[in-house]
Amino acid sequence: MTDTIFDKIIRREIPADIVYEDEEILAFRDIAPAAPVHVLFIPRKAIATLNDANEADATLIGKLVLAATRWAKSQGFADDGYRVVMNCNKDGGQTVFHIHLHLLAGRQMHWPPG
Ligand code: 5GP
After folding, report:
1. 40 C-alpha to center of ligand 1: Å?
2. Quick one: which of 101, 43, 45 has its CA closest to 69?
3. 100 is catalytic
């Protein structure tokens, strides 16, 4: 699969405001925030879209969600609430083809999303 901007962030070839990392996951602030808090949680493993994830990735994807919820709690906004989003392909609005979980917080979210 092709290298993405997120692979470059993982390799520290381009800068990012990293807020969390472990052996499998990196989290950094979105360059174009859609909310007062907008952080992207990505696996170090390159998976292009959710369609490319398989059973072997189930634990990793679960860890992505739990890393986000843990971080939300650590930042003190978990009780107020937040939204997590994973976009897939064109109709889902995906623009970077390395799966990522958006964590959005700090304002009232609306439904349905745009
Ligand atoms: P998608 O639209 O694929 O679900 O989300 C990709 C996100 O990556 C967008 O919200 C976009 O603002 C963010 N993004 C794209 N390029 C960069 C970058 O170079 N640095 C950071 N921090 N975020 C980026």
Report:
1. 8
2. 101
3. yes
Domains of the chain, residue spans: 5-105
For domain 5-105, the question of CATH label 3.30.428.10 is answered with: yes
**Tens-digit pLDDT profile for residues 22-53:** 999 999 999 999 999 999 999 999 999 999 99
Single out the catalytic residue among 38, 100, 102, 110: 100
Helices and strands in the chain: count of H runs, count of E runs = 3, 5
| Statement: the pTM of the whole predicted model exceeds 0.85 | yes
Buried b (16+ CB within 10 A) or exposed e, 55-82: eebeebbebbeebbeebbeeeebeeeeb
